[in-house]
């Protein structure tokens, strides 16, 4: 006897090797997918019925001990099942009281989104990316004197443009241009100064590269001018909060938008950091911000989410976000992560930003395994090669 550690392709092969009927293979694949769902604020009756239904479908549902005895009227529940079991649970809920209709609909919506997982297509003017193939590499082009790693790297526009071109040659899928450092403790930059830093570089880059350019800003006026010069993504650390006109600008240009979680503002975000439940709080924040974006004219298919590694988080928060990144898949949107050379890696390795390459690569591979769709990095070539090896192992190619 031996344990099998298999992805879908490997399990399919093993099933066929032992002579399983080809039509039965999808059923076994569904049974192999363990799913753990947290359902919040269910009534006592809903908790008890869901538990009984789950047990009849070879699944289970963990509920508060006082719910069973009738002493707790509302509680959270954790449903432990697999894809096949969840399909059966949804079917059986059809024959349960009407007050469970909303629960059934939520579970059915989850099932639909699960099968569409990572089935995202990003369409730009000159490039179309299928995110199911691999994580995209977003190369960082910081035009700031005070960024935590590469501040003051370029002495003139030509050097910055040449570096952008090199990142494309190294395999970047997107170039993210920033004119204001948002490292912890950083000071805001005046609008004119930010534009002075980014505009000349964006204009020159547009002439020489054919991949999309993103503008990393939370100022609507900067976004508007850069979008008019050919940028196709606005990467807003504030989740459209710092500038109330940002959503309108993104919608008017039909641009892509990265909505990031941040607690506080860059200058003070690392002071008195506290979360009762970091994953839930980030999830709820992103969900609300996505709804805000859509209600303000931004198309859902143009939205990318970012849990905001290092933005108002301590080491333990960053590690938990990375470890549980795939939980944000429930929002059914592409996930971008900016982990590259950040301080949490320095704390683990006890090293400065210049020595955090290997830690960043290690983190990139784990993020890819957990479902990150876009990796925002300083080291394009090294990250791209690491992802290529990772994908070859996963796909056996």
Structure, described:
- The chain contains 15 helices and 13 strands.
- It has 397 residues and is an alpha/beta fold.
- It has two domains: 83 residues, Ribosomal Protein S8, Chain: A, domain 1, CATH 3.30.1370; 275 residues, Dihydropteroate synthase-like (TIM Barrel, Alpha-Beta Barrel).
- Strand 8, helix 9 and strand 9 form a beta-alpha-beta unit.
- The longest helix is centred in the middle third of the chain and has 18 residues.
- The relative contact order is 0.09.
Concise synopsis of the structure shown:
The protein has 397 residues and is α/β, with parallel strands linked by helices. 43% of the residues lie in helices and 16% in strands. The chain has 2 domains: 83 residues, Ribosomal Protein S8, Chain: A, domain 1, CATH 3.30.1370; 275 residues, Dihydropteroate synthase-like (TIM Barrel), CATH 3.20.20.
Gross CATH architecture of the largest domain? Alpha-Beta Barrel
Domain module count: 2
Number of strands: 13
Task: Just give the CATH class of the largest domain.
Answer: Alpha Beta
Q: How many helical elements?
A: 15
Biggest pleated-sheet summary: 8 strands, parallel
Question: Structural class, from secondary structure content?
Answer: alpha/beta
Which fold name is given in CATH as the topology of the largest domain? Answer: TIM Barrel
